[in-house]
Specification:
alpha/beta, 4 domains, Rossmann fold, 598 residues, nucleotide-binding, Death Domain, Fas, 7-stranded mixed β-sheet, binds adenosine-5'-triphosphate
Amino acid sequence: MGQVEEARVSCLDLLTCHRELLVSTLRSIQCLLDNLLANRFFCEEDVEIVQRTVTKPNQVRKILELVQCKGEDACEFFVFIIYKICDAYIDLQPWLKEINYKPSRDMEEMKVVNTDPISRYCEKQRHEMSRDTSFIMSYGQQDETRLEDLYTDTVMELFNDANESLGFIQSLNQLLGEDGVFNPQGEIIYVMGDAGVGKSILLQKLQNLWSKRELQTDAIFFFKFRCRMFSIFKEAEQISLRDLLFKYNCYPDHDPDNEVFDYILRFPDKVVFTFDGYDEIQEEIDLMNVPEVVSPEDKANSLQLLLSLLCGKLLKGSKKILTTRTGIELQSRVIKKKVVLRGFSPDHLKTYIKLQFKEQEHRDLVSVQLDASPHLCGLCSTPLFSWIVFKSFRHLHTIHDTFHLPETSITLTDIFLLLSEVFLSRLATPASPLLKKSTRCTSETFRVGLRPLAGFAKLALQGLERGSFLCSQEEISECGLTEEDMALGFLRPISEFDATDAPATFEFIHITLQSFLAAFALVLDEQTSGNSILKFFTECSRRREPCCLPLAFCTRSFVKPCEKRPSSTNEHLQFTNLFLSGLLVATFVCCHYFDCWV
Ligand SMILES: Nc1ncnc2c1ncn2[C@@H]1O[C@H](COP(=O)(O)OP(=O)(O)OP(=O)(O)O)[C@@H](O)[C@H]1O
């Protein structure tokens, strides 16, 4: 042994000296026993003796007694376990610093396995999060893409409470950091952006980075929620915070003493939450009469739990990112910092083109098209529209050997018509073997696809009329849609939060597509009078007043309660109006799409 090692204080003495602290602080007994047993400091009988002891402090006393009986090596290994598995023995890390503990070289060679429920839970969460976030799932079940093959940075601008710009965020690590915090007392990192600008994908990327330990944060737990799920719970259904976290996210295995939940309650700053799509909450709740939940043990309505989390009544100090469509304003008091997503810059768009098109020749052809049409290029700054445009380009190239879009002046309506054409073309009979590419015939594609298109349009309109973005298998069948129609790509199943064996639920691949199809349904229906076609215009003008979402009830004095429905619903109606205007433009009606049925 060298000089330095000789000078070490004996661990046996340390355990005697600090016995009281150890007895009162040590948790995760099983992990200690597992490692002492695996390294033969304990035999099976020692483990049984400890396990037969009734209370936790007594179990610790027994372990200390046994390791001290076994001598210095056993005591040193005992301290080494605490040092090595710092997550599980977080309360004793200051103690190790205080005694200036450094493991000896011999100890460093010893194998310690983390069987602590908290650490296992962290691992399980990371594993599940990685599995769930590695692919971009959103569009067309046919082509799932790896997140890392398609994710492109977008412009993120910071704002203060007076909506003055504080500059731009350069990396996702800054999102959780201190940059741009204008209210340290606030709880929420508020991320806003227009439809399709990439809010959900941003969260997905963040979750994926965390799962791979590539996000700079000391958070060891990560819970992701879509706000929409809070509308799925029945109003009378009461759930606990524990169930919300574990049942609808990730369940802790082998945790008989509830250590994971206790840890979360004690160290909320180690937890990140993401709540996606606050605008999608569809509850009509009586804002003034919803009681706050302040105890983590109490059961409550899921929405109450959400709001209590958001305003820090529960798990205060946890990191919370909330995304919403532009236009939903929260009170500054609950906001810590505000980020507005702006979509792709011209450079981001170039990168995105590279990721979308592998061949340089194709990249050049697409860039030429975009350069020739500033309007189209502007649309492509929104990632969703970029995705649709590039999907259409690829489709045109595969089927017709061209990258030319049909119109010189492209509108949003064109983009969605094109997307529908792409989906419907899956119904078309394959080109004859002699023809390399089929000849383009838009009206033929729409004629062949009219039945399913009308079915999806009806389904979209019905959903919008009742303010719902979800549809059941029954509603789908009632609209005359078959299993084959489902494969076209308009709808996708939602599996999340489906803990029960409830029948499958579906949603349109994007809410904007639902708005488009709803407008389509209004135009298609020959029975509809002029007045009913325009009904959403009237709806929107009636709902003009600024509206507030339920967070008002945790900040009661800040926001005036207003009409029942959230303004988000209004926004979808406004999209429908926009598409309706687009579809009613005479050129469309005459030239391209409707000639097959008008
Ligand atoms: N950063 C990105 N890199 C690559 N593709 C992206 C990115 N952001 C968005 N997209 C594409 O745009 C689509 C829509 O993005 P996303 O669902 O995140 O939008 P959103 O802002 O959440 O929309 P909404 O408000 O309607 O929910 C994605 O499915 C993806 O194809």
